[in-house]
Hints:
The chain is mainly alpha-helical and 119 residues long. It is built from two helices and no strands. The chain has two domains: 1-42; 70-119. Residues 98-119 are annotated as: Disordered. The chain crosses the membrane at residues 12-32.
Amino acid sequence: MVYSQAKVIAGGLAHIPIVISVFYFIMISFNIRALEYAEANKSIKPKSNVLGSKTEAKPLMAVKAETEDVKETEVKEEKAQAIKGISNKLEEIEKKAEDVKEKVKKKQKDKKKKKKKKI
């Protein structure tokens, strides 16, 4: 039995979503396994057995707040350093631009002087 080109193309297009869904489910199953493996193999920090250690038990919310504050200050410091670096580069570029501007002015004056001498 011979099929027309239109039927063959329509059949192929109809099967594309089916093939995509099969590969999608395969991908999901592999991702779930990878996540479970990662969770199972997380390294657990060993507790130190220091004698006479006097540490205060802080509530979890306080610890989270402290870590967030530390992260925020680190981010602020990084931003400040980046801004300082950019401002230094900007100053260097401005100095170079001024030097180039002065050189161009000198060259233009020299050209005017040469033209006046020729006349």
